[in-house]
Amino acid sequence: MKKENEITPEQIVEEVTPAGTAYVVSVTKNDKIYKAYLKEADKKTISQAFSKMRNVNSESFDIIEVGEMVLRKCFIGGDVEILGDDKLLISASIQCYNLIEVYDSEIKKI
User: Fold this and answer.
1) Does the structural domain 9-99 have CATH classification 2.60.40?
2) Under DSSP, is residue 43 helix (H, G, I), strand (E, B) or coil?
3) pLDDT higher than threshold 50 for residue 97
4) What is the 3-state composition of the chain as percent helix, strand, coil, each rounded to the nearest 5?
5) In whole angstroms, what is the distance from residue 95 CA to residue 98 CA?
6) Residue 50 contacts by C-beta under 8 Å, 6 or more apart in sequence?
């Protein structure tokens, strides 16, 4: 039986097309598991994340802020409590930071 806050596999496929990839972030609080279903970060989201990383006045940046932005922009369903409860939000945001995927590359003068 489908719970009210669950997203169906059909909804995931519908939402992530054409990106083609979906993720689930699970956060446990007081023995209850909260889930957020996410679509793959698009170019605009990745660009905004890098912009936030560049705008900090030091070598470090706030991965929670970057992760939260990714979480909110890529959220396609699940437990909305994750977006409203600070501790759930922080835990999920730390994981969502990892969705900003960059491949190794190099440039050489020839």
Assistant:
1) no
2) helix
3) yes
4) 45, 20, 35
5) 6
6) 100
